[in-house]
Model the fold of this input.
Amino acid sequence: MATVGRELGDFVKEALARRTPRAEIERVLLEAGWPPEPVRAALAAYADLEFPIPVPRPRPSLSAREAFLYLLLFSALGMSAYRLGALLFGIIDSVIPDPVAADWVVASAADRIRWSIATLLVAFPVYLLVARRIARETKKEPGKRASRVRRWLTYLTLFIAAVTVIGDLVVLIYGFLSGDLTVRVSLKILTVGVIAGTIFLYYLHSAARDEREA
Done:
């Protein structure tokens, strides 16, 4: 596999050295059966500059500090999203209690609300601070948008959010068809859908922007 990638990179480098237009190189490789993504990646490895030989772009490297920042960012995001949902669930349970629930379940809503507020007061500011720091660094060095850990965690977040939204819609439709869709249940389903959907749309836009600017 590494040999194949090296052959593609050598071909692109040689073609660029002979002043072959990039569009022509891409067309020929696609006609030869190469998938579009590795072809574009091979072309993107060289800067579009007027110079006698192809000028390579700097390759993004993964540092322990970068991995730490992104892991902290997405961990804080996950904690914030989970606890925001728990907070809203607790409020819903307090305002519209389940008549068949045990007394201790109803009483625990206040405790869940306190824990959720405490977690949000810590996790969400951490998320905002780390996101701001990363945004400043990627503005100075746009090549960091191609970071592997950033891309993997972004698409993992998109996957989790998408699965959550799909499951949420399934529960909503099932409750509607079975006639068990109460106001209390509907509000909880809406809560999960809004939180997961917002995260999905935000990071979908972020991933598309990274692909354009990387």
